Amino acid sequence: MISRSWRNIAIIGVLLVLAIAVPRLGLPAFYVSLLTQTWIYGILAMSLDLLVGFTGLVSFMQAAFFGIGAYVVAIGATRYHFVDFWLTLVVAVLVAGIAAAAFGALALRAEDAGFIIITLALNEIVWGLAYQWVSMSGGDNGITGFLRVNVGPFHTTDNSGFYYLSLTALIICLTLLVLMVRSPFGLVLVGARERPRRMAALGYNVWLFRYLALVIAAMFAAVAGVLFAYYNEFVGPGSLSLDTTVQVLIMVILGGTGTLIGPLLGAGILVFLSNALSDITQRWVLILGAVYVVTVMYAPDGIVGLINRLAARARSRRELSLAASAAPAGAFNPRGGPER
Amino acid sequence: MKRVFAFLRHHHVAAYVSICAAALSLTTVSARGAENPPIRIGVLASESGTAAAAGHDMVTAWKLYWAEHGDTVSGRKIQFTFYDTGSDPARALTVARQAVEQDHVQMIVGPYLANEGLAVAPYAIQHEIPFLEPTVSADDLTQRKVNKYVIRVAGWTSSQPTHPAGDWAYDKGYRTVVTIADAYAFGYENVGGFNQTFTDKGGKVLKQIWTPLGNTDYSPYLSQIEAAKPDVVFVEMVGSDAVHFLQQWHAFGLKGKIPLIANETTTDQSNTRTLPPDVVDGIISFGHFAEGRNDPATQGFDANFAAKTGKLPSYMAAAFFTAAQWIDDAMLKVHGNVENTDAFLAAVRSVRLADSAFGPLQLDAYNNPVENIYVRRIETVTGPLAKYGKTWNVVLKTYPNVSQFWSLSPQQYLKQPVYSTAFQGIKAP
After folding, report:
1. Least CB-CB distance to B122: which of A7, A233, A282?
2. How high is the pLDDT of residue A155?
3. Is the CB of A308 inside 8 Å of chain B's CB atoms?
């Protein structure tokens, strides 16, 4: 086991070095910008995973908070002329948090299908605002005319500078989320997902924990939205449409719910696959659809889940053969521990 | 940190996969030959998503031109790559990046939708890439946001055909109007143009109705229109909205009862070709293209497009065909040397088409064509093209050389804001 944890450290190190080196490896600028998109969508997908995977809330309104973050950047810069990155980020996260506090109070009155429908409706309301409140949001045309701003050491006007900004944001968000789901708070979320009544009986306010998770997830989504707005230097109602919500949900499911790293992988797959496929054929949407169907059929717990299952099977086979050679047949319980 | 690693321990295989994927993507760097290099044109078209049908027309017409006229200029091959915008501005931006940063295109032609064009324009300007727009009609791109890199080759502004429409409607004796249009920028600009010239002359707007895009049931709006008792109705619709509106206008018995004036897209061939003749017959509309225009340039294009696709062309098809012609002319003028961007842009600006599928075309000082606007009426197709379609737009009257600023000077015109729900150009009586 020790060797495995060292191996993991090595893997993370290599991945990190690779991610840092990518813009300097002579990779065409376009791939660097696709990776940048992956990091941004990765943050968004991980924020949704906190709800879908850990809290058991299938929220259809994550795009709304993503879009709120993006619109705060655009409206702030073009109407109120505040262009400071940190101020913008803080305002965006706060606005999204406040919105989530209001929406959460409404949506969490219901569970399961009811929750889905309410979140879907709330997302549509925010989309409708962005689409129809033309004097504020630019309506269907969206908002252009604001530029990326330099953040600390990152010269965001060039592609690699923005890449590093997004990568840094991703690493910070991933670390925070991992710490959170491993903390007692995260364990209560999982407990409330699995056995809400028992958790309530144990004295936990299940509703409050879910509510907090929803608000926190919205704040992370807003961070992604802020980055997305600066990245494109354009914000339109598409960023908070139902399409985006569904797309992010697919990233989470494709990668594997409740794994955080899975949704990041899902984001990468979606970004790269859709671009690669659309180069080859006009029917790329159809092929993407087929990929989702196959995933849901053969890897319902996502790609990370599939890999884990295969790895676990290989491990148990190895242990089995090990045990078979050491102990007489029949005395071994491959699952370990007593049968229940 | 220990927790992070403990968490990741269970996912080490995923990590390997992503390393492999990253390594794989590194190998796709490609080399390019240097001798007599091709001219690289990126064509952004909405080949999937809500505007997919329009995208197909655009791509087909673009290819048609080069198939007819050869794809070399001054010994250089023209290499065009199509990028699918998916009818989505963010995606249009992504493929524009791909075109510029990966494929190093020397100009971008397209995309289709106004919001796509508005999203891509700042990017093209930043990278000093000529951005040539045959269909993107958002008024501001050649008005309040004019830029030397953004040129509407064979293009138009949304309100360009509707300024004459308001003028014509008043002269026809109509004094009151109800407008109905899609609730988005293209709708606001179309209707705003009509309202401005109509009320300037003394007409009155009784009511304005904005309907959501993708609406299928117009009956509540149609009863509102009937109740208002206007002299005339002005309508702007796109795509399936146009089809549904025209069907219901006919089904509710309003056709022939209240005069209807349509914008260009409502009765575009792409919509009317799916409708029975009695639904659309006789409808008046205003546009910069009329597939039934009795002129060799238009009829020739119609015939070629129809022979290729089996249907009559939409204005989008005509726009991409004529844009190809325009760009071909400009490239000839600089002997294929598109690397000198300023000279190439000047050449694009200096192109004058004596006749095209649209009629004569030349740019104003704001990079938008001064062009004919046609008063069109839907009639049964006659002549050799009759086997390709049931009805088409024929020309009743031509407003020659119409500017995007109508009768005002650019300075005067640009003092007013762009048309929106808040500003409809309506002059108080």
Report:
1. A233
2. 86
3. yes
